[in-house]
Amino acid sequence: MSGPIYVITDPGAPLDLATQARAAALGGAAWVQLRDKTASDADLLALARQLLPEMRALGARLVINDRVEVAIAAGAEGLHIGQGDGDVQAIRAQIGPDMILGLSIETLDQARALPPGVDYIGAGPLRATATKPDAAAPIGFDGLAQITRAVSVPCYAIGGLGLADIPALKAAGVAGMAVVSAVTRAPDPQAATQALLQEWRL
Ligand code: TZP
Ligand code: MG
């Protein structure tokens, strides 16, 4: 479907969101998700509109977290929602057939009940992470492999992941890895993204 490296922005990281997104795309991320639970819709929309042509030029897909209206108004490539963000099929109807829809999956039961209309899943947290302290219980690599096998769409692992996890992630059969702090809190986010991609390609 796309490349393996999926970078998610963090308003708590040292660089601003636009700089994080650019660094990720320049480093070879196939996916850049704008995630900022605190920004207003208007601010997030303005940022998405600004970034979209830049991300496209760099070959990265821009995905909006949570905000259906912002994703539609921006014409973003994708929308990512969680289990509590509403009815998946209603959201699919709202965004139309072409926008990529990602869904967070936290358990094997959720994977088995994956509704139609979802293009990829984010599975996790793989392990506990300070970035999302309220995340569900960690699934571990065995849980990840089971979830991956239970769905027919690409699976991106998330939660506490870094460079050293890549061999085990590949062995679990996932399409890629989604990271926040491994890139956004790295001293050089572009180089950190590049390193993930290089390791993935080994
Ligand atoms: N969903 C599950 S874990 C997580 C999200 C958004 C945060 C992952 O952040 P990090 O810094 O890559 O552990
Ligand atoms: Mg959400």
TrEMBL record:
It catalyses: 2-[(2R,5Z)-2-carboxy-4-methylthiazol-5(2H)-ylidene]ethyl phosphate + 4-amino-2-methyl-5-(diphosphooxymethyl)pyrimidine + 2 H(+) = thiamine phosphate + CO2 + diphosphate; 2-(2-carboxy-4-methylthiazol-5-yl)ethyl phosphate + 4-amino-2-methyl-5-(diphosphooxymethyl)pyrimidine + 2 H(+) = thiamine phosphate + CO2 + diphosphate; 4-methyl-5-(2-phosphooxyethyl)-thiazole + 4-amino-2-methyl-5-(diphosphooxymethyl)pyrimidine + H(+) = thiamine phosphate + diphosphate. The keyword Transferase applies. One of its GO terms (cellular component) is cytoplasm. Mg(2+) binds at residues 66, 85. Its EC number is 2.5.1.3. 4-amino-2-methyl-5-(diphosphooxymethyl)pyrimidine binds at residues 33-37, 65, 104, 132. Pfam families: TMP-TENI. GO terms for molecular function: magnesium ion binding; thiamine-phosphate diphosphorylase activity. GO terms for biological process: thiamine biosynthetic process; thiamine diphosphate biosynthetic process. Residues 5-183 form the Thiamine phosphate synthase/TenI domain. InterPro entries: Aldolase_TIM (IPR013785), ThiamineP_synth_sf (IPR036206), ThiamineP_synth_TenI (IPR022998), TMP_synthase (IPR034291). 2-[(2R,5Z)-2-carboxy-4-methylthiazol-5(2H)-ylidene]ethyl phosphate binds at residues 129-131, 160, 180-181. The keyword Cell membrane does not apply. CDD domains: TMP_TenI. Belongs to the thiamine-phosphate synthase family. Condenses 4-methyl-5-(beta-hydroxyethyl)thiazole monophosphate (THZ-P) and 2-methyl-4-amino-5-hydroxymethyl pyrimidine pyrophosphate (HMP-PP) to form thiamine monophosphate (TMP). This is Thiamine-phosphate synthase. It comes from Rhodobacter aestuarii. The gene is thiE.
